[in-house]
Description:
heterodimer, A: alpha/beta, Rossmann fold, 7 helices, globular, disordered C terminus, B: alpha+beta, Phosphorylase Kinase, domain 1, Transferase(Phosphotransferase), domain 1, 2 domains, six-stranded antiparallel beta sheet, three-stranded antiparallel beta sheet
Amino acid sequence: MSQGTxxxxxxxxxxxxxxGEDPSAIAAxxxxxxITVNVIGVVENDQIGAQGIAEIEAIAQAGxxxxxxxxxxxxxxxxxxxxxxxxxxxxxxxxxxxxxxxxGEEKEIDDLPPDKRGEVIEVVDELGETLTLEVCILxxxxxxxxxxxxxxxxxxxxxxxxxxxxxxxxxxxxxxFPGKRRDSExxxxxxxxxxxxxxxxxxxxxxxxxxTGPALRDAMNMFxxxxxxxxxxxxxxxxxxxxx
Amino acid sequence: xxHITKNRAVNIKPRTLIxxxxxxxxxxxxxxxxxxxxxxxxxxxxxxxxxxxKIGFDKMGIISEVNTLRQLSSVQGQxxxxxxVEMDDWNGLxxxxxxxxxxxxxxxxxxxxxxxxxxxxxxxxxxxLEKLHQKGYIxxxxxxxxxxxxxxxxxxxxxxxxxxxxxxxxxxxxxxxYDRAYWGVGSxxxxxxxxxxxxxxxxxxxxxxxxxxxxxxxxxQIEKKLSAHPYLKRYRSIFxxxxxxxxxxxxxxREALLSVDGGMRSEQRSMSRREKKKAKKKxxxxxxxxxxxxxxxxxxxxxxxxxxx
Lengths: 244, 309
């Protein structure tokens, strides 16, 4: 939550990875970088394998986020719920650490009597509404996902719609995997809102492999690119200032 | 192969005794009343009577709801939501206890009592919402599941305050069918008109229980259906204005609804006036006939007397 920013990766998939690094390891790496990884497994009439579910849960757990397995029709609601819950959880974690610092030992919100908790939560709510939120959305576009993509698109537009109503700033980016020649394809670079994904989802050619791990790494890199770009911009402004 | 299960579901069996860790109050579970995004609600028995108890893994959500309930209970007089009783922990879960509101769903109430109750409930709900908005909050997730009609004299009450949001913030919880952003006619920023849209949608739904709507056809299809409804068509312009966010507060919409029925009363009055006039006319006709008969008789007597004489 450095500089008042919450960073999340949202992985939307419908099954198991089959190429490249272990996605859980990459998720754990992201967590270390201060990025929470949430995973939503979308199923339709066809059911998801136990192995797929296990992987989805493992990735979210390693990434310090939430996982949900849902039918396509509930995707929109779930995307928002998961994003919000993870956001609050991140802030909650920070507040808990602060409490530990103040009271020492393992003092957490749960250890406070019920009457005292309310005020803490009010602070958490306030922060959730005002902090900057950066979400990189990673969409599995392998063959089995093809007919679910319109729903995915809709739910992302809806997520953006909800987040725009917040007081704080938002930034979204969208990656699809597998990419044409690479592990993932950038569909949308960092933008404050998602309003039209129709054209970009059309270009996709759903392939056979599912390189979830490498794609997660790409998503993680999206944040460092954003940060370095910002730093570069800031340096640039500084240089201009000093030269004048 | 695996079934899709609700993640982190809370399932407490009837007759389980829940004893609060901090306050040591005891509640015996009777049955589950409902299931929400942050936990389940149970009907429980305490020594002082029946209560509703909400319990869940999402501590944050539970505490946040308690904050809201406390806020709402601080209004003088009647509570906008259920009365808040207490919050406590049990088995690592956080729960809170609130008033158990016994009643029936809006849909079954209207089905039993008739369509003319729709506007009564709307007016009651608008009064409640106006109070809530005055306090700086909107209800957010206004839908049939979150409303109940309690007796003995029917009164609509708000349940589940999970969606209650400070005005100006982003709506905490919503249901797509009742969400104006889903229908593409507004944002998810918390403002009174957000609730008014949902309210209009709730009662549209109550009046048309079997209608299925398509998102692609937008709000137009609803307006069309309304103008064909035998009872609601008189109010259709008010519904349409609520759908378009043209009422900036609940009071405005309430007054608009009242004026429709006020208008009807004067119509009735004028109809009865017309009837009275008709009755008068009839009376006059009778009088005229009577007078004519009397003159005729008088003339006849006169003639008779003349001949006799």
